[in-house]
Design brief:
The chain has about 350 residues and is of the alpha/beta class. The protein contains eleven helices and 18 strands. Helix 4 runs antiparallel to helix 9, helix 6 packs parallel to helix 8 and helix 7 crosses helix 8.
Length: about 350
């Protein structure tokens, strides 16, 4: 994969059945158990089977879940923040970590997507599935944008995400994803240096719980991917990326970053506070979504003067129109919404409108 060098990834299997195969048989030691105060005692023996079990809860249930999880020997709590603000989540987690120091509290981003390559778009209108015409260039549905934003804005925790399977036909809905779909999801998380809560289709989970040979034949194909990343020594290598994205709003910049990822463009995300010449090393193009203070704006200008391309989204006119001598640079209109300015050996491109999802 182009996006990143494989380093370390942890897969939490989301498990709902009271019957658990041994951890060595499943090939995974981390379980995410959806919170249910009635069913949770069924998993009190998970540690004896080689598992580290985590209760997966909404933020409002985290306190009561932590009390029960401590009693039953769980390793931690996976918190789904829902619509809560980041500062509310951090405040709640600080209190919980103080009250339950033996539990590990992790924040889940549940807004991931199934990794796949698309050539057409399937939409549902009035209950009828319709397929669009093939695109000129297939795009990749990946979780790169989500992971890069998590790494930039929440660096204290390895990104942890989950997604729902897109099962469009009747056969898939009955039997679930193929082994290669599960394997791709595991490989993607590992390549992006992220952790994944992996949902199993009920037919596969039930089959493994009942020791069905067909279910285990599917899962055994996935286990080689699960083993790959833990077998390699942990090493921190920066992902190969020649595009930098500067933003102070992860929600507003998600779609533009996602569009870059769709076309297999490697990127890194920088907050304005982290913008520096060193942070732009190896970058050919920098896309700026945030208003910048003077010192940071000069960093972008110097980057362009040395031959880089700076794309300024929104109002950055005073930054874009200054040449080396401080005189107003002559614009070249590229389209109705974009203008280019020569700056030293490079250029700046000003986009007057935000980038939106073409779907």
């Amino acid at each position: 994969m182009l996006f990143a060098v494989p380093v370390w990834s942890k897969v939490f299997v989301r498990w709902t059945q009271p019957l658990l195969p041994p951890a060595e048989r499943l090939g995974v030691h981390e379980l995410a158990i959806p919170w249910n105060a009635v069913a949770l005692p069924s998993f009190r023996g998970a540690a004896r089977q080689g598992y580290r079990a985590y209760a997966e809860v909404a933020i409002g249930e985290a306190s009561s879940a932590a009390k029960t999880a401590t009693k039953f020997g769980f390793a931690g709590i996976i918190v789904n923040p829902g619509d809560s603000r980041p500062d509310q989540i951090e405040q709640a987690l600080r209190k919980l970590r103080s009250a339950y120091p033996r539990l590990l509290f992790l924040t889940l981003n549940p807004n991931g997507k199934q990794p796949q390559m698309r050539g057409t778009l399937i939409v549902k209108r009035n209950g009828v599935l319709e397929a669009t015409s093939p695109t000129a260039q297939p795009w990749l549905d990946t979780n790169l944008a989500l992971v890069r934003l998590e790494q930039a804005f929440r660096p204290a925790q390895t990104p942890l995400y989950s997604f729902a399977w897109e099962l469009t036909d009747t056969l898939q809905q009955q039997h679930g994803p193929d082994a290669k779909d599960y394997a791709l999801a595991v490989a993607e998380a590992g390549a992006f240096d992220a952790d994944l809560v992996l949902s199993l289709h009920e037919s596969l989970e039930n089959g493994m719980a009942q020791n069905n040979p067909g279910a285990w034949a599917v899962w055994d194909q996935v286990k080689s991917y699960l083993r790959f990343f833990p077998q390699h020594p942990e090493r921190r290598l920066d992902p190969e990326a020649n595009v930098g994205v500067v933003t102070d709003d992860d929600a507003a910049s998600y779609e533009p970053i996602n569009l870059l990822a769709r076309h297999n463009i490697a990127l890194r995300v920088l907050r304005p506070a982290d913008l520096s010449p060193r942070g732009l090393e190896g970058v050919d193009v920098v896309v700026v979504f945030s208003a910048l203070e003077k010192l940071k704006a000069e960093t972008v200008t110097d980057f362009a003067k040395k031959g880089g391309v700076a794309v300024l989204v929104g109002s950055h006119r005073s930054l874009a129109r200054q040449s080396d001598s401080g005189q107003s640079a002559q614009p070249v209109r590229l389209s109705e919404q974009s203008v280019s300015y020569a700056v030293g050996k490079g250029r700046m491109i000003e986009l007057s409108e935000p980038v939106t999802d073409p779907e």
